Amino acid sequence: MKILKIIHGYPPDYNAGSEVYSQSICNELSKKHSVFIFTREENPYTADHKIVREVRENMVFYISNKAREKDGYRHLDLDEKFRDIVTEIQPDVAHIGHLNHLSTGFVGVLKGMSIPIVYTLHDFWLMCPRGQFLQINFGNPAFHQLCTGQENHKCAVNCYNRYFSGKSIDKERDEKYWEQWVESRMEETRSVRDAVDLFIAPSRYLIHRFITDFEMPQEKIIYLDYGFPLHYLSPTEESAQRETFVFGYIGTHIPSKGIDLLIQAFKQINQKARLMIWGRENGQSTKNLKKMANGSLNPIVFCGEYINTNLAKEVFSKVDCIVVPSVWGENSPLVIHEAQACGIPVITADFGGMSEYVKHQENGLLFTHRNKDDLAKQMIFAISHPNEMKSMGKRGYLHGDSVPDIETHCRELERIYHKIINEKS
């Protein structure tokens, strides 16, 4: 089978959840199938949408340059280059992971060529122009507020007012322009919804949101949790009880991940503890998180980037608990599954798909979403009950015997591909 995987970034350049998951399934599927990957890079020294072709590990990569584009969604010149590539490949199925930084027009190209389309949802990008239902609120002290639902005018004034001229006389004109822009953008993503053959969601929360808020037909969306290469995700040998309880954070250093909330909560703790923060440093964001960490009674250590294949040894063996403090509605965080596979308990928010995989005082702890005081309370509980936390970690994944392995997961993907191919033939 020829499989075309479309994803807006790919390791090692991009290491967020959707990119890491895409790498995992591509590596596994390429053992039996021909896998082609269309992705992006950001090279400011070359032309927009220039395509670079590379062969890596028996897979063919087509890499589009997207160094300057930020809020666009449809790019006709890129669509034509994509059409040429698809015509050359003639894939049996296309599996989309994300179209942000690429082009929504890809779906029309595939549909016009009668190629079956599967789309794994990783966030809300199709139903929210910014992807996470977090408002920018430029100029408003209440920034990064949760959004309850997409509305064209609300998007314009709460998320795109950063592009307004700044002159009060132009305010009405600017609002109307961006409201119309959002309207056109949403019409485009609804056409994507209609053209895709099948959507996959890794959490039931995500399914519910797409059905209720985006009019997704129930028959077009199914639940399938992520799969993981478990050969490098296994419990490490138990060591003697640490004198100091160690919390860990793993992930990108961006506001939606709530690292600032975690630091604020940790700074409230008077008991002996340690916080280790892993992830690629992100310029001013990381710089200001480090400033925020100053003055903590207990050490906060920034550990830099990690390699996924070394997670168990280099990260999980050094912590007693992982904290996932995201301030948006995460759907199915990879780090929760990875920690559970290694027998590490998780503290996370009682919201979105996060609470779908962690049950309070069963395999971890839940805190009130976006509430630093309640997060501090749960962290203090963890410090005071290390043996109970260790027992919670051993309970791991609550949706089956173990975290889904990548081999079984890809067999299910193959079944889905064949089903869609047969229905289209």
Short description:
The chain has 425 residues and is α/β, with parallel strands linked by helices. 37% of the residues lie in helices and 17% in strands.
Q: Element order, helices and strands?
A: EHEEEHEHEEEHHEHEEHEHEHEHEHEHHH
Distance between the termini: 15 Å
Total beta strand runs: 16
What's the CATH class label of the largest domain? Alpha Beta
Helix content: 25-40%
| Biggest sheet strand line-up | 3-4-2-1-5-6-9-10
Largest sheet: 8 strands, mixed
Estimate the strand proportion.
15-25%
CATH superfamily of the largest domain: Glycogen Phosphorylase B
CATH topology of the largest domain: Rossmann fold
Q: Give the count of structural domains.
A: 2
* Overall pLDDT metric: 94
Rg over CA atoms, rounded to whole Å, is 22 Å
Secondary-structure-derived class: alpha/beta
Q: How does the overall form come out from the CA principal axes?
A: globular
The CATH architecture of the largest domain would be: 3-Layer(aba) Sandwich
Number of helices: 14
Low-confidence stretches: none
